[in-house]
Amino acid sequence: MPKVTFKFQGSQLFHDGEVRENTLHYNSETYEIGKLLWDAPVSGTIYGTLLNYKGALEQMGDSVHDAPYNKPPEAPILYIKPINTITGYGMPIPLPLDSKELEIGAALGIVIGRSATHVSESKALEYVEGYTIVNDVTIPHESFYRPAVKHKARDGFCPVGPWIVVKEGINPDSLRIKVFINDELKQENTTANLIRSVSKLIAEVTEFMTLSKGDVLLVGVPENPPKAKAGDRVRIEIEGIGSLENVVVDEKELVAGVRL
């Protein structure tokens, strides 16, 4: 029965509880997970990582030798999912008016527990509070060489949750990840296929920047991310962490992120 940290909509407080199958045990009460109003259980900056799955880099083929870099990446390729993108379990994912579909980016989120600078790979997990599920939503595009702000930083493009699972008992480098759209399995992979393990990723990132308590570092998105259109229900499952569910909704049906 994993121990979790979570936050309800409308509250600034974080709570601790335990998860047992499809129920949350909190404050001596039992709640059905799907009937609760969840807020994203994060407080810091969310950093995404590109091309950290072996299959995703392999799909680039010979193009990794093209200009401007002329070789495969030697360090993590990072970007930020800003605060306007962050939303919780059960909240709608807006489909922009200029798009027909969205890429669903199933990502394990590493939640940092204390300030981390120049962390060694052997001690990296000591700086982790726990793990969460992140849907790194993206408008399909081809370029990896320019900041894809227009494609990755739209409102509601980063569902997170429903909770943070404490790190004890979790091997982050061997977790099965599945994506379902309308209950149909569309993608399956594992963090065993990462180019940089969780420890190595933390070590390499903190070589040049500090990760603060509450920040979330995404390990990356597997190759061939499935696509979803308006009306599709998306569920990401990560072994040992739980599941994150959201529905894609036409942007014109939403006002301030709320479905009319």
UniProtKB/TrEMBL annotation:
Pfam families: FAA_hydrolase. Residues 45-249 form the Fumarylacetoacetase-like C-terminal domain. One of its GO terms (molecular function) is metal ion binding. InterPro entries: FAH, Fumarylacetoacetase-like_C, Fumarylacetoacetase_C_sf, HPA_isomer/decarb_N. Belongs to the FAH family. This is 4-hydroxyphenylacetate isomerase. GO terms for biological process: small molecule metabolic process. Keywords: Isomerase, Metal-binding. It comes from the Bacteria. PANTHER family: FUMARYLACETOACETATE HYDROLASE DOMAIN-CONTAINING PROTEIN 2A, FUMARYLACETOACETATE HYDROLASE DOMAIN-CONTAINING PROTEIN 2A-RELATED.
